[in-house]
Amino acid sequence: MFRQSIRRFGTTALRAAEASTTSYNVRVSKAQGFTNGLTEAIGNTPLIRLKKLSEETGCNILGKAEFQNPGGSVKDRAALFVVEDAERKGLLKPGGTVVEGTAGNTGIGLAHVCRSKGYKLVIYMPNTQSQGKIDLLRLLGAEVYPVPAVAFDNPQNYNHQARRHAESLDNAVWTNQFDNTANRQAHIETTGPEIWAQTNGQIDAFTCATGTGGTLAGITRYLKTVSDGKVKSFLADPPGSVLHSYIQSGGNLVERTGSSITEGIGQGRVTDNLQPDIGLLDGSLNIPDEKSIEMVYRCLDEEGLYLGASSALNVVAAQEVAKKLGRGNTVVTILCDGAYRYADRLFSNTWLQSKGLRGAVPKHLERYVVLP
Ligand SMILES: Cc1ncc(COP(=O)(O)O)c(C=O)c1O
């Protein structure tokens, strides 16, 4: 009797759900169903048309909402692929340890993936990083070693310490995000195909900045292949990165000088992730911090998008590519992460002033500078 009423209630509830599905026009695919754990929830992010910038340029400017990944950034994809690559190669078995050198989103992505799969995570980072970053990784279950910030050619550099830590343990792997091409593979197998499917193949250009280069390289490789070379691709570079001048000069690698407020991007060398695809690029753009900051505020005010500075830089680059190609083109970029982890800087009067960037905030958007 009781069971029957549950069944009857169940059927009624199901009918009600079906009815509401129709009336609310649910847009999620039935085939998608549920995911088996966190790792299957990585990817399949929305592609958002930026309405104001699209109107202004007469193009479709589309941003891939990578901030919607479970760990909050595009780096969840790379984190999953480097871990699963190690599993496939037999380098990581149940109960094993993942070691990485990172101060940012890769560590957060790895922390989520490692907890979900039952691995330990050890992170090495320069001790110049904020306590907030250390705390966040620790509360996500990682063992964190802040070490002196020294150059890459010094054996005490955080990346080398991470490698040695992994070598000293059984059943441990150094995931090596910069030169492990499983990172680029994540974007060949997931982000690239998603963009192609979401635009129905109606895409003219792609652009984004690089940290490891995995995102730009993997998406460029996929889009060039699937479109027979028709989709154009451009690297976007912040100040202090050498890749723009490397591309403009046809392969001349200069010494790194200058710096940028953008986090997670900018590079002093051509990584193994970027190397196979750098020759496919159609050009590059250099985006000053002033324009990135202005776009942080514009995206917030015009689109309701609360984005970190690397995403804002990407949007500036997409806008410039759109202008370059002319009206009627579709340009896609990456919205790498949200502004949550950077709010105490990006929206602080004192911080903006200390970087000489207070004047970059448009007058009519000054009300968003809410922190002292
Ligand atoms: C905020 C942010 N944007 C962009 C990137 C660059 O992505 P990739 O390493 O694939 O070049 C990163 C990388 O860590 C990042 O943290």
Stretches with pLDDT under 50, minimum 5 residues: 1-14
> Major sheet: order of its strands?
1-2-10-7-8-9
Bound molecules: pyridoxal-5'-phosphate
Q: What is the succession of H and E elements?
A: HEHEHEHEHEHEHEHEHEHHEHH
Report the total helices: 13
CATH class identity of the largest domain: Alpha Beta
Oligomer: single chain
Q: Which secondary-structure class do the elements indicate?
A: alpha/beta
Number of strands: 10
**Helix content percent band:** 40-55%
Radius of gyration: 22 Å
Tell me the CATH topology of the largest domain: Rossmann fold
Overall mean pLDDT score?
93
Distance from N terminus to C terminus (CA atoms, Å) equals 65 Å
Strand residue percentage: 5-15%
CATH architecture of the largest domain: 3-Layer(aba) Sandwich
Total individual domains: 2
Reported for the largest beta sheet, the result is:
6 strands, mixed
Properties at a glance:
cysteine biosynthesis; 41% helix; 4-stranded parallel beta sheet; binds pyridoxal-5'-phosphate; Rossmann fold; 2 domains; transferase; 372 residues; cysteine synthase activity; pyridoxal phosphate; disordered N terminus; globular; Cys_Synth/Cystath_Beta-Synth
